[in-house]
């Protein structure tokens, strides 16, 4: 008899979601995590009394994550203390204009009527289109496998309403936003959201233009830090016998006669199981951890052709007093043309200027208990930063860049910042890779353009090795806490179907 029925590699949200659902199917599940805590990109660590979120700073679509909890007889609202974030975000435009978008749609209409009266009609049409798309997508898209052409046909057959929105998939984020809006301030306010899916407005598929609107379905922060969400899954899984083993790095997936037989850790320990669920980057899984004899030449070539998603440096600021901010999420924006230009002329050329834009996540606004009394934390998600810098390295530039970025933030967004700083921790794409073993510091695993989506993304049920399943940002429906939770549901359903 094998040591376990299922081994999950990686305790990210996708891995813990799948692991806990599989434990509730009555399977003996072991989750192996290389780091000393769970959650991966949706995690929180303690530094001198400050509880700092590594990556994810809010969730949208709590109901999608809830579907997984409901299958285990509970709910996200019972397992995680969710705090509503309202306004959904405030945009600080390059010219100093501030626009806050309240959760309430009527209130948002009032804001738009004030900032851009000429676009009020456009906003209403955009809201109606995206609401229709979301209703259709929530109905089928999120939890249906999309690994084969047949799956895609089934997806549209079961959710015919999605067909109406086919043109969204074929256009770009920028095209859709510009179709509905003409006011440059409003367009700028919506310009950074495309990086929530890892590409600039000009390159991101148009269905992601739902992002600025979908926030009005609800934005939440989880008390105790973002780690409370994966910990909620961990607790549910442990109630059904799931085990989580930290500081255990998997080196190889063991395959016998074309079928998974377990894993080997970096210290040589072998743990056996009939089913292996991978929550790690799929390109790395197939190129480094599965014996190439199990992959055809075409498959090897196909896997190497996947591009890693963008990397993003982070600056974590621990402060001795309240920052000069109003809301949990403040977007430091640039005009859409400049955002595209940044991608093509800075990011792609390996440059990382100190005049940064991005997100200020003031987490202690939503949960003051994350820091010592009266102290605060801002996690700054900066603009995309190439893994390979031109003519230099991140390690060489780190300290100089950190000081220059803080200076810029103080001058443009956070007056008095330097006097408030107790700790400033700068995490580069190389640090991110070291911390989470995420190749090239990729924050959403693989690119999310059309040719890396749906059936073109690595399949949830491996086409190459029987008994191997994929969850997390590498597989459908892609990066994001709700979407990787859906990938956990998809994998658990496929395993229930194919692995009796
Ligand atoms: C900076 C940043 C900001 C983000 N902001 C948001 C946001 O606000 N809202 C949102 O919804 N999403 C956000 N995301 C995306 C979201 O956090 C991720 O898509 C999601 O958490 C990824 O989950 P996952 O299941 O793919 O696993 P991951 O988080 O990628 O976890 C994989 C786990 O596998 C472990 N691992 C790797 N290799 C091995 C190995 N060999 N052996 C054992 N363990 C291994 C890693 O340590 C890690 O814990 C953000 C991401 C980042 C990085």
What would you note in describing this structure?
There is one protein chain. The chain has 500 residues and is α/β, with parallel strands linked by helices. The chain folds into three domains: 4-82 and 223-306 and 447-498, FAD/NAD(P)-binding domain (3-Layer(bba) Sandwich); 108-217, no CATH class; 310-436, no CATH class. It has helices spanning 13-24, 62-71, 76-79, 105-115, 120-141, 149-158, 166-170, 173-180, 184-189, 211-214, 228-239, 282-289, 297-305, 336-345, 363-366, 394-412, 417-420, 429-436, 481-498; strands at residues 4-9, 29-32, 44-47, 50-53, 59-60, 82-84, 89-92, 98-101, 219-222, 243-245, 250-256, 259-265, 270-278, 314-319, 329-332, 358-362, 376-382, 421-427, 468-470. Strand 3 and strand 4 form a beta hairpin. Helix 1 (13-24) runs parallel beside helix 11 (228-239) and helix 2 runs parallel beside helix 19. 53% of the residues are buried. The structure holds flavin-adenine dinucleotide.
Topology:
Elements: E1 4-9, H1 13-24, E2 29-32, E3 44-47, E4 50-53, E5 59-60, H2 62-71, H3 76-79, E6 82-84, E7 89-92, E8 98-101, H4 105-115, H5 120-141, H6 149-158, H7 166-170, H8 173-180, H9 184-189, H10 211-214, E9 219-222, H11 228-239, E10 243-245, E11 250-256, E12 259-265, E13 270-278, H12 282-289, H13 297-305, E14 314-319, E15 329-332, H14 336-345, E16 358-362, H15 363-366, E17 376-382, H16 394-412, H17 417-420, E18 421-427, H18 429-436, E19 468-470, H19 481-498
Parallel strand pairs: 1-2, 1-13, 2-10, 7-15, 13-19
Antiparallel strand pairs: 3-4, 5-9, 6-9, 7-8, 11-12, 12-13, 14-17, 14-18, 15-16, 16-17
Helix pairs in contact: 1-11, 1-19, 2-19
The structure holds flavin-adenine dinucleotide.
């Amino acid at each position: 008899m094998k040591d376990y029925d299922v081994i999950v590699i990686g305790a990210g949200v996708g891995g813990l979601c799948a692991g806990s659902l599989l434990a509730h199917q009555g399977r003996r599940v072991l989750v192996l995590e290389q780091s000393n805590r769970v959650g991966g990109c949706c995690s929180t660590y303690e530094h001198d009394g400050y509880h700092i979120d590594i990556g994810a700073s809010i969730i949208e679509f709590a109901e999608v994550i809830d579907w997984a909890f409901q299958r285990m007889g509970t709910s996200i609202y019972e397992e995680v203390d969710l705090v509503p974030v309202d306004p959904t975000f405030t945009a600080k435009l390059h010219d100093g204009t501030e626009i806050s978008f309240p959760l309430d749609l009527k209130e948002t209409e009032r804001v738009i009527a004030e900032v851009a009266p000429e676009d009020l009609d456009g906003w209403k049409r955009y809201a109606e289109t995206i609401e229709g798309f979301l209703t259709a997508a929530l109905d089928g898209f999120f939890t249906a496998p999309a690994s084969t052409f047949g799956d895609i046909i089934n997806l549209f057959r079961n959710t015919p309403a999605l067909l109406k929105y086919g043109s969204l998939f074929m256009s770009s984020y920028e095209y859709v936003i510009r179709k509905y809006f003409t006011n440059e301030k409003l367009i700028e306010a919506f310009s950074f959201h495309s990086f929530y899916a890892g590409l600039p407005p000009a390159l991101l598929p148009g269905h992601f233009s739902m992002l600025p609107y979908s926030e009005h379905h609800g934005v939440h922060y989880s008390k105790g830090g973002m780690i409370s969400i994966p910990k909620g899954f961990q607790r549910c899984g442990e109630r059904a016998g799931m085990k989580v083993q930290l500081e255990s790095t998997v080196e190889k997936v063991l395959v016998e006669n074309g079928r998974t037989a377990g894993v080997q850790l970096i210290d040589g320990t072998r743990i056996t199981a009939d089913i292996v669920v991978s929550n790690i980057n799929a390109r790395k899984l197939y190129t480094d951890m599965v014996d190439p004899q199990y992959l055809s030449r075409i498959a090897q070539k196909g896997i190497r052709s996947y591009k890693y998603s963008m990397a993003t440096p982070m600056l974590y600021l621990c402060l001795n007093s309240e920052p000069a901010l109003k809301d949990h999420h403040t977007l430091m924006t640039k005009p859409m043309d400049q955002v595209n230009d940044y991608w093509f002329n800075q990011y792609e050329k390996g440059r990382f200027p100190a005049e940064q834009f991005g997100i200020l996540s003031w987490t202690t606004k939503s949960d003051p208990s994350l820091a010592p009394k009266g102290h605060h934390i801002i996690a700054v998600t900066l603009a995309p930063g190439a893994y390979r810098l031109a003519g230099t390295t991140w390690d060489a530039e780190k300290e100089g860049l950190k000081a220059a970025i803080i200076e810029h933030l103080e001058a443009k967004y956070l007056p008095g910042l330097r006097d408030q700083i107790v700790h400033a921790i700068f995490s580069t794409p190389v640090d991110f890779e070291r911390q989470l073993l995420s190749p090239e510091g990729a924050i959403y695993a693989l690119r999310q353009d059309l040719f890396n989506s749906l059936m073109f993304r690595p399949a949830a049920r491996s086409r190459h090795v029987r008994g191997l399943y994929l969850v997390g940002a590498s597989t459908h429906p892609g990066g994001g806490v709700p979407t990787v939770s859906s990938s956990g549901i998809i994998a658990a359903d496929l395993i229930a179907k194919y692995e009796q």
